[in-house]
Design goal:
With 135 residues, the chain is an alpha/beta fold. 36% of the residues lie in helices and 19% in strands. It has a five-stranded parallel beta sheet, sandwiched between helices. The chain starts with 21 loop residues before the first strand and ends in a 5-residue tail after the last helix.
Length: 135
């Protein structure tokens, strides 16, 4: 680099402050629900858990949702997120799954949904909540 030249520094996305949020956690596996609820609760967030589509849709009032992809029924996580967003426009929702396939990633991207891979780390959880503009 020539003397006096300034190296370009990539712009960093600035994480926003995340205060206590109301979180919906949807998973058909009780152990996963407990673990994710404990993770969210340990960070001061209010948590509601749901094992089924009907439970998730009942009284939907949360600010964010973490939804498993394979819910063990006719409705998958992406379809449930679409229904949740119809009930609560502007809902921030992430699809939480062990499925790292390109097919699912493309479907989620087309739906405007972020995919978070299981097992979900605290860092990934916090990072998604703090990322500006993440659907």
């Amino acid at each position: 680099m020539a003397e006096g030249a300034v190296a370009a520094v990539p712009a960093r996305t600035v994480a926003r402050e995340v205060g206590p949020l109301s979180c919906l956690i949807v998973d058909d596996d009780a152990g996963v629900r407990r673990a994710m609820a404990a993770l969210a609760g340990s960070r001061g967030h209010a948590v509601r858990v749901a094992a089924t589509v009907d439970e998730a849709l009942a009284g939907m009032a949360e600010e964010v949702a973490f939804v498993d992809h394979d819910l063990g029924g006719d409705v998958d996580g992406l379809a449930l997120i679409a229904r949740l967003r119809a009930a609560r426009p502007g809902l921030r929702a992430a699809l939480v799954t062990a499925d790292a396939s390109r097919t699912l990633a493309e479907a989620a991207q087309a739906a405007g949904v972020t995919v978070l891979l299981k097992p979900l780390s605290g860092e990934a959880f916090d990072g998604w909540l703090a990322a500006p503009g993440k659907a």
